[in-house]
Amino acid sequence: MIIKMPDTQTNAIARKIDELHQERGEAGNDRVLTLIISTDESELENALKIANSAGREHPCRVIAIVPNSKELPFCDVDKEPDCYVTDSGDVETDLDAQVRFGADAGAGEVIILRPRGGLCQHTDTLVMPLLVPDAPVVTWWPTNPPANPSKDPLGAMAGSRITDALRSKDPDATFAKLRANWEPKDVDFSWTRLTTWRAMLATTIDQPPHLPIESAKVIGQPDYLPLKLLAAWLALKLNVPVELGYVTGAEAITGVYLTRSDGTIALERPDSREAIISQPGQTPQKVAMPLRTLEDCLSEELRRIDPDEVYADVIREGWDMIQG
User: Fold this and answer.
1) pTM higher than 0.85 for the full model?
2) DSSP alpha helix (H) spans, 96-194
3) Which has the minimum average pLDDT: 37-41, 92-96, 295-299, 320-324?
4) How many CA atoms lie within 13 A of 239 on its CB side?
5) I want to staple 161 with a disulfide (CB 3.0 to 4.6 A). Which of 12, 73, 149, 234 is the partner?
6) Following CA atoms 174, 161, 132, 306 in sequence, which dihedral angle do they give, to the nearest 10 degrees?
7) Residue 184 CB-density burial (10 A; 0-12 exposed, 13-18 middle, 19+ buried)
8) Alpha-carbon span 51 to 293, nearest angstrom
9) Is the peptide bond before 133 cis (omega within 30 degrees of 0)?
């Protein structure tokens, strides 16, 4: 069900949501969190698809803010019987909204706010009346985040702020600003994409013989932020020189090589599905290691919410240790 509400107000949206919950005979306060998405029209549907997928594990209320968008397209009730237009009279409020329930909203409900004019500068006041009471708030920028998420109106109210510098217009410049303005509640998907790599490497290193690592090398896609973050993590945790190598045409990270006195430990992912672990004196092993999707990354961050202390150490200390 999709309900479009032109020239509306947040209290009218809240009432409509309560009515829909009552009609369905369900509680409206059983969501585990509120997920705020700050995006543009071109990215909106993709972001909502990702949020709805992650919402199966974390039932939440999704509030998407899409400022400065074009006029809200009205539906034809005769052709779209599940789409209802809420008539607010002739009042101009500079706020169009859309409420999605049921199959169109995953395991929760979706509220899309399209402010115009001066309301674009006060997005936090639009969102506050719609938050799930006594539940955590997470703010996610799917593409281009503000330079300082903690100072952004939507970021200031959040217990967790998620960015994705890799999908911004200029990943390196964006991440440089995020690092400079980092606060404990901030995390970037460039780091979340590395969870499987870090787990596999930690498990491999922990196996005997426990010889010290002398150096490391990480290779993969050129100008790939997760590759640099993985190298920074290894440099920080192992306190050894880490070399960066780039492979033209590679997809993400393709290999990590750890040198010891008895040889080289290699974790290589030649394709996007599985990896090969090679250790001195042992038969190489294949393990499933598919590329992480955006749904995987969002689900992980919604599961954690608490500040990531390892990420903090990596961007504050490890980043300056990497070579290349």
Assistant:
1) yes
2) 123-127, 153-156, 171-180, 189-192
3) 320-324
4) 1
5) 149
6) 160
7) middle
8) 12
9) no
- Nearest to 187, CA basis, from 226, 236, 220: 226
**Cα–Cα nearest to 275, from 203, 224, 187:** 203
Q: Which helix (H) or strand (E) holds 54?
A: helix 41-54
Residues 6+ apart with CB under 8 A from 286: 274, 275, 276, 277
Q: How far is CA 250 from CA 13, 30, 169, 172, 223, in A?
A: 47, 44, 20, 18, 11
Residue 74 clears pLDDT 60, i.e. is over it: no
What are the tokens at 23? 């009609």
**Residue 156 CA, distance from chain mean position:** 17
pLDDT at 108: 81
Q: Rounded to whole angstroms, how far apart are CA atoms 8 and 98?
A: 10
3-state secondary structure of 47: helix
Q: Are 140 and 298 in contact (CB under 8 A)?
A: yes
Tokens of 229: 């973050």
113 - beta bridge partners?
65, 97
- Within 10 angstroms of residue 293's Cβ, the number of other Cβ atoms is 12
For residue 159, pLDDT over 60 is answered with yes
- d(C-alpha 69, C-alpha 74), whole Å: 14
Looking at residue 130, what is its pLDDT?
96
Q: 138, 36 in Cβ contact below 8 A? A: yes
